[in-house]
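dumping this here before i forget
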Amino acid sequence: MSKQIFHPANARGKANHGWLNSFHSFSFGHFYDPQKVHFGALRVLNDDTVAAGRGFGGHPHDNMEIISIPLEGDLEHKDSMGNVTVIRNGDIQVMSAGTGITHSEYNKNQDKLVKFLQIWVIPNKRNVAPRYDQISLNPEDRKNKLQQILSPNADDEGVWIHQDAYFHLGNFDENVETVYQLKNKSNGVYAFVIYGSFQVDGKELSERDALGIVDAENFEIKALSPNAEILLMEVPMNF
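structure:
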């Protein structure tokens, strides 16, 4: 029997800095909840909206795997390794901060918002050489099915990180069902509804709700609304 941890959207931490409106699924910045420090190796899930022409100035990171998933708009990235790129919906960006990296992120446009998910995963190797990667995925590859966007393996579909983690995105028509099979049954899965509503492992979830699932080998997913989108993050629970 699986165990569930339900995190409703309206119970997330919130920070509104004017230029940045951010919702925190886990303790971050001034938001601290001892019950929401992490889910296994998943340390941060921030749902960020950045005002036109604004952004995060240069700031450092180390010993963290950082994944960005753009939802709307164009986000410009610059870092201390010399990378200057723009990520858009359909792209996946990853940084292994390792021994240390400095980067900035800005909304490239003066007339529209940027919305993206910022995710941090605790690595299984410390002080690795910093690394940056960015890929563009075909959205059709997740229509009514789960598309792998991240794994521990450089030769697998999607980006890779220094952790036994697997991320999948799916976009489903109403009433379409599928089964998620865990890659490692000792892992847990944090399911986050991006748009619409789903039934996940028997639990109904609305937009931006999340459900942590542990002690499961697989579970069922059913879309309860049209054009429903979900992110599944399978991570080690012991690390």
